[in-house]
Amino acid sequence: MSAAPAVSKPLVEVHNKGLITLSIMLATIMQVLDTTIANVALPSMQSDLGASADTINWVLTSYIVAAAIVTALTGWMADRLGRKRLFLISVAGFVAASVACGLSWSLTSMVAFRVMQGMFGAAIVPLAQTFMLDINPREKQGQAMAMWGAGIMVGPIIGPTLGSWLTESFDWRWVFFINVPVGIVAFLGCAANLPERPLVRRRFDLFGFAFIALGVGALQMMLDRGAELDWFASPEVWIELGLALIGFWVATIHIATADQPFLNPRMFADFNFVAALVMIFVIGMVLMASMALLPPMLSRIYGYPVMTTGMVMAPRGIGTMLSMVLVGRLVRVVDPRLLIATGLGLTAYSLHLMTQFSPIMGSGPFVTSGVLQGIGMGLVFVPLSTTAFATMAPALRADATALFSLVRNIGSSIGISIVGFLLTRNIQVNHTELVSGLTATAPEVVRLQPMLEAMPGGGAWGLLDGMVVQQSLMIGYLDDFLVMMWLCIAVLPLTLILRRPQAATPAAAVHAE
Q1: Structure confidence by residue, pLDDT tens digits, 34-45
Q2: How is the chain split into domains, by residue range?
Q3: Which CATH number is correct for 263-416+474-513, 1.10.10.10, 1.10.260.40, 1.20.1250.20, 3.40.1550.10?
Q4: HSE of 480 in the Cβ direction (CA atoms, 13 Å)?
Q5: Domain 7-203 carries which CATH code?
Q6: What does the alpha-carbon distance between residue 43 and residue 41 come to, in Å, rounded to a whole number?
Q7: Beta-carbon neighbour count of residue 320 at 10 Å?
Q8: Nearest CA among 104, 7, 4 for reference residue 505
Q9: Does 348 or 323 have the greater pLDDT score?
Q10: Contact 175, 167 (CB under 8 A)
Q11: Cα angle, residue 327 at apex, residues 323 and 329 outer, rounded to 5°
Q12: What pTM value is reported for the model?
């Protein structure tokens, strides 16, 4: 008889793994939702808080910048405070800051409380991933990453729909108050069940953190304010770019040469982790960029109301959930590199379908492409997260998961900025090219001439210009989808150089502990 396959032990033995997983996932979904749920409430906030169209965006910018900077601190804080204590502080602080945001009386107070919310929430996602890896043995980490990834991927998709419903049915303040019951349940579950590990005496590298914070903060500011300031036509954008380059350059040299740098350079010796960082950067770009493009496209071109837009985009989340459930089991028996390649291929194909959108069509193509993209993203995210940390030393996981989350978020910010810039530029180019072709003898003008002549005054040319604007806008969106499709194709070759994680032996598992 053949021997049964050896089963490895988790790094941390727990008795209530189901309750821990549920509590962690509630906290994760709560934090991830807040990256998109507040966007749709901005117009209502603007009038209530007395803000201008320019300054109200600081409600989003302050949260993003604060969360990005503090994410880099997660590993150090987890060692000094303990992972359980830091997680509980983060959840409690996030809920308290959410209540404060809902009670805001001015733009200044709102921005201050959003900074607090971003700071407290920054550690939730990387620590949740660390706990999920710690409490599951190697052969079940794929399923664990599937559950964790479901919150990460589905949260931004349902955020705008939930935010719209809360704003229309109640008040914009409930966009923040909704975190209270979820946060309380997550806190109580984590307080009762999360395991604790010994504290680690670790020197704080102020110099390294300062330059990482400078680079991340300046980059996020540039990406968030670039479109508003007309990018490199603004001195502010050049200053922020210079500060970002200085920060990242000095931090990189410091990490490579210092005795005890802020980020342990040993994690970069893990080939799979480095390759996964590049891939998750691109995935972050594509996921959030497509999420940023579709709602305004459905509204501006197709005239969909907010709730209809949410319903049309909901199947994307369903596709992601289905693939998460499936891939959590497949990753144990199928080469994760094959799953990643399949997911990237499906995502690229869905974006190809999106380049075929027409201004005159039903909701079917949106649903089909959305489901395919959701499935593709799920097939990529879970095996990529599993592969990235499969060979990572447990002592480095907190730092590594923080960096993984930070790179994904930076990719998302860069992706949103790039597609926004390309959309604005291409609309102008397309409009100029289309107008130049509308001569008196052009077939389109000849065909519409009877209708145009029948319209009084200048209404005919207004109608014609509106049609040109709509076509320019549509072509601009299709060009963005094409760029994202090629990004997915460009990163596909990295799957060929990933190393397949080896199954852990009992001896290895004991040694890891």
Answers
A1: 877 777 777 788
A2: 7-203, 205-261, 263-416+474-513, 429-472
A3: 1.20.1250.20
A4: 29
A5: 1.20.1250.20
A6: 6
A7: 27
A8: 7
A9: 348
A10: yes
A11: 135
A12: 0.77
Report the distance separating Cα 386 and Cα 273, nearest Å.
Answer: 10
- Per-residue confidence (pLDDT) for residue 349, from 0 to 100: 94
The pair of structure tokens assigned to 428 is 């102008």
Q: Read off the pLDDT of each residue in 308-315 and give the average, rounded to a whole number.
A: 78
Whether the CA torsion 40, 316, 406, 199 is positive or negative: it is positive
Q: What is the pLDDT of residues 16-70, one digit of tens each?
A: 788 888 888 889 888 888 877 777 777 788 888 887 766 777 787 788 778 888 8
Quick: pLDDT tens for 458-468: 555 666 667 77
Instruction: Judge if 7-203 and 263-416+474-513 fold alike in CATH terms.
Output: yes
The burial of 94, by beta-carbon neighbours within 10 Å (0-12 exposed, 13-18 middle, 19 or more buried), is given as buried
Q: What is the dihedral of CA 390, 150, 77, 205, to 10 degrees?
A: 60
Nearest to 297 by CA among 319, 312, 316: 312
Task: Return phi, psi of residue 285, to 5°.
Answer: -60, -50
Identity of the amino acid at 320? T
d(CA 22, CA 110): 30
Task: Please state, for a pLDDT cut of 70, what percent of the chain lies above it.
Answer: 89
Report the chain's terminal Cα–Cα distance, integer Å: 31
